[in-house]
């Protein structure tokens, strides 16, 4: 009888501890950071769509420039994920994203120190030259960049 009671007590304590561990890991997830991105090619002086040539960390700033697109960005495990909502899309974003399956980056793009720190990186985040997959979802578009 004592053995069964002891095993039951161990089972209950183990279950409670597992619940606490799941709660802690959920609390550690960082919310996305709002970033304004200019989805234009760097090599053309930021005048042609289909690339990234500028970014601004969105704190309390409201953008009135039509070429900047509001995005949610997260950075985990050296991977930058940028999500663009279809409801907040500018004409510039539509020209760069709608109808495409990838986004070409024609020159290395480095985020500012401020944006990189806000995203959780100790050093500036750089997107290297390349062609990156673009996924369309019901709500918007997702870009995933492996970074160093």
Structure write-up:
With 148 residues, the protein is α+β, with helices and mostly antiparallel strands. It has one domain. The protein contains three helices and nine strands. The strands form two sheets. It has a seven-stranded antiparallel beta sheet with strand order 2-1-3-4-9-8-5. Strands 6-7 form a two-stranded antiparallel sheet. The chain is globular, with a radius of gyration of 21 Å. The protein starts with a helix and ends with a strand.
The unreliable regions are 16-27
Mean pLDDT: 75
Please state how the strands of the largest beta sheet are arranged side by side. Answer: 2-1-3-4-9-8-5
The percent range for strand residues is 35-45%
Number of separate helices:
3
Q: Return Rg in Å.
A: 21 Å
- Tell me the number of structural domains: 1
Q: What gap, in angstroms, lies between the N and C termini?
A: 58 Å
Please tell me what the overall shape is: globular
Structural class: alpha+beta
Q: SSE order, as H and E?
A: HEEEEHEEHEEE
Largest sheet: 7 strands, antiparallel
* Count of individual beta strands: 9
Specify the helix fraction band.
25-40%
């Amino acid at each position: 009888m004592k053995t069964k009671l002891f095993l039951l007590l161990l089972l209950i304590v183990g279950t409670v501890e597992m619940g606490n561990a799941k709660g802690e890991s959920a609390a550690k997830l960082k919310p996305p950071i709002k970033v304004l991105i200019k989805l234009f090619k760097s090599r053309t002086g930021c005048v042609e769509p289909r690339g990234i040539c500028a970014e601004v960390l969105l704190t309390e700033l409201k953008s009135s420039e039509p070429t900047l697109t509001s995005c949610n960005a997260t950075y985990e495990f050296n991977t930058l994920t940028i999500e663009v909502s279809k409801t907040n899309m500018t004409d510039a974003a539509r020209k760069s994203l709608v109808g495409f399956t990838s986004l070409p980056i024609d020159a290395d793009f480095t985020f500012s120190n401020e944006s990189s720190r806000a995203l959780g990186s100790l050093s500036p985040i750089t997107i290297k030259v390349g062609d990156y997959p673009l996924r369309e979802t019901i709500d918007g578009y997702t870009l995933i960049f492996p970074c160093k």
